[in-house]
Amino acid sequence: MSLDVIIPVYKPDKKFDQLFRMLLMQSVKPDEIIVLNTETEDFPNEAIVRRLEKQMKKQKIYGKKQIDVRVVAIRKEEFDHGGTRRYGVSLSNADYFVMMTQDAVPADDYLLERLLGGLQQEACAMAYARQGASLNSSMVEQYTRLFNYPKTSSVKSKKDLERLGIKTYFCSDVCAAYRRSAYEEVGGFVEKTIFNEDAIIAARLIEADYRIAYVAEAKVIHSHNYTLREQLKRNFDLGVSHAEYREIFAAVPAEKEGSRLVLQTLEYLMGQRRYLDVLDLIFQSAAKFIGYQFGKHYRMLPKELVLKLSSNPGYFMTGK
């Protein structure tokens, strides 16, 4: 059984260094770590190769298994949430692969082992990790992580669509393991999407009668304190992806799940008497809702406005 880890990076910071060190210490070690580097003048490929080699020399690697590391250059204008990951998978021949983002730091040495364990369950094609908020996260962000990533593991299948709706497709390439045979059966990651490539492939796996495992015991530290502007832009892109893949998302609208998150977060904050955080929740929720609704109807907007609302304006410079 072979396993690779694939990580797109753009100007990686210290969190990526922590992530890389933790991958070297895993109880089940990957055969290869493939880094897809969106090159800039500050972060050319050669500099990242030297940086990773230096870490490997410093880090004591337990066991005899040699971990290969490959850094592949991606031009900024070529980056796409689906296409870049699809390309990364094409560089791997492993039976299983794990997609990660550069800011997801494994909480312990058993992340990969537990994700692989999740894939051994019957008909499971994908297993995603629990995301815990960092200590400097806002109260709203901390509760959002608890809402989306509870302490109890679960497995989702087609029969859960009526009960869970869009939550059936919820997963995250922040840290998710895939069974290659199932991945290839459904056609892999879409070649072009502004966002949401993980939910799109999850929907296709579910439709093909595979199951998706949420492995709460496999944990990464990953959270953001987005500004209102960033939140609006992020949810604009989410709305665009739902509009462009309407055949997947129209039957499971996201608004109901979003409302449930807001109401439960509000109840939690009121119970904790965190009244200033309630204001934060109100403003963030408004930014999310406005961004998402504009994104869903982006085809009706002037292109100049679309470019301002998106966190990835380059996506709209070429056709879908």
CATH fold-level label of the largest domain = Spore Coat Polysaccharide Biosynthesis Protein SpsA, Chain A
Give the overall silhouette. globular
Give helix % range. 40-55%
Main CATH class of the largest domain: Alpha Beta
Strand content range: 15-25%
Series of H and E elements = EHEHEHEEHEHEHEHHEHHHHH
Give the low-confidence spans.
Answer: none
CA-based gyration radius: 19 Å
Number of strands: 9
Classified in CATH, the superfamily of the largest domain is Spore Coat Polysaccharide Biosynthesis Protein SpsA, Chain A
Distance between the termini: 36 Å
pLDDT averaged residue by residue = 92
Counting structural domains, the number is: 2
Q: What CATH architecture of the largest domain do you see? A: Alpha-Beta Complex
Structure classification: alpha/beta
**Main beta sheet strand tally, sense and closure:** 9 strands, mixed
Please count the helical segments: 13
